[in-house]
């Protein structure tokens, strides 16, 4: 993706998280800053799929952040939808604010998530150029990470309120289904979720898909994969992970790992991005 880019050394990265929760349901954030004295000219990161929409704010200078998947790249601040495939980010050394939005929170802030599924888009295309530039300027002008986090909470809250005044972002039944999928770690059957909402499975799948961008069944697979990925990174044997996460057998675990990140379970367990997840996202994925 980047000429002469070096894989990021996480030992040379300062990670900062808010002292308190953002106060917005389904939202998590972390700040990343590389110590310049230790840094190469450009770095590259391979990131693992997780059950959140991601906003990446480029707070550095120079040529800026580059993000992309499957040969499609954008430069500068970006929005990354669910299931972006083999997602990579990189660029010159600098600072970056990453915000994870659970799908319900993403719908509230960004609108229907279906348009972003599997995609990486410029933040200017998602928020509008003027709004995106103003957000970047405000975040860059903040004198500390605490100030940046507070500014980000304000930006997200205002956008959610503006959209809510026009129409509710998702049906209560859709939100319930997502919350239950998270709480059940992806193991609650869609038939049971449909029964709880009073809808047919067909209607639930259609409404869930139109508002969050993926079907309830695929959402459950992504949530279950996310849990499995972290257990693998913690050193658990694949056979134990498959059993503990509710897979029918180990080949089904292999199938999901291959589909979501294009790796084997052994390779996924060594993914550097997962190694810092407990530091950057101590509460787990957004929306949990």
Automatic annotation (TrEMBL):
<protein>
    <submittedName>
        <fullName>AraC family transcriptional regulator</fullName>
    </submittedName>
</protein>
<keyword id="KW-0805">Transcription regulation</keyword>
<dbReference type="InterPro" id="IPR050204">
    <property type="entry name" value="AraC_XylS_family_regulators"/>
</dbReference>
<dbReference type="Pfam" id="PF12833">
    <property type="entry name" value="HTH_18"/>
</dbReference>
<keyword id="KW-0238">DNA-binding</keyword>
<feature type="domain" description="HTH araC/xylS-type">
    <location>
        <begin position="172"/>
        <end position="271"/>
    </location>
</feature>
<keyword id="KW-0804">Transcription</keyword>
<dbReference type="InterPro" id="IPR018060">
    <property type="entry name" value="HTH_AraC"/>
</dbReference>
<dbReference type="GO" id="GO:0043565">
    <property type="term" value="F:sequence-specific DNA binding"/>
</dbReference>
<dbReference type="GO" id="GO:0003700">
    <property type="term" value="F:DNA-binding transcription factor activity"/>
</dbReference>
<dbReference type="InterPro" id="IPR009057">
    <property type="entry name" value="Homeodomain-like_sf"/>
</dbReference>
């Amino acid at each position: 993706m980047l000429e002469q880019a070096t894989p990021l050394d996480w030992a040379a990265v300062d990670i900062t998280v808010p002292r308190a929760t953002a106060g917005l349901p389904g939202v998590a954030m972390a700040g990343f800053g590389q110590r310049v004295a230790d840094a190469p000219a450009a770095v590259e990161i391979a990131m693992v799929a997780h059950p959140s929409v991601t906003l990446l704010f480029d707070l550095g200078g120079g040529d800026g952040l580059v993000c992309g998947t499957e040969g499609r790249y954008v430069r500068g601040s970006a929005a990354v939808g669910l299931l972006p495939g083999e997602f990579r980010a990189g660029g010159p050394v600098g600072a970056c604010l990453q915000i994870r939005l659970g799908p319900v929170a993403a719908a509230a802030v960004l609108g229907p998530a279906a348009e972003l599924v599997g995609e990486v888009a410029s933040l200017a295309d998602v928020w509008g150029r003027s709004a995106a530039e103003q957000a970047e300027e405000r975040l860059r002008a903040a004198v500390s990470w605490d100030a940046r986090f507070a500014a980000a909470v304000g930006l997200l809250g205002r956008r959610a309120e503006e959209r809510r005044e026009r129409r509710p972002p998702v049906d209560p039944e859709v939100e319930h289904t997502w919350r239950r999928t998270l709480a059940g770690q992806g193991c609650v059957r869609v038939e049971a979720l449909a029964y709880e909402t009073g809808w047919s499975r067909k209607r639930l799948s259609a409404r869930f898909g139109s508002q969050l961008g993926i079907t309830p069944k695929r959402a459950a697979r992504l949530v279950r994969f996310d849990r499995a990925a972290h257990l693998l990174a913690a050193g658990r044997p694949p056979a134990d992970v498959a059993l503990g996460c509710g897979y029918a057998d180990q080949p089904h675990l292999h199938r999901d790992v291959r589909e979501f990140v294009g790796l084997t379970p052994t390779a996924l367990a060594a993914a550097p991005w997962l190694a810092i997840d407990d530091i950057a996202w101590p509460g787990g994925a957004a929306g949990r």
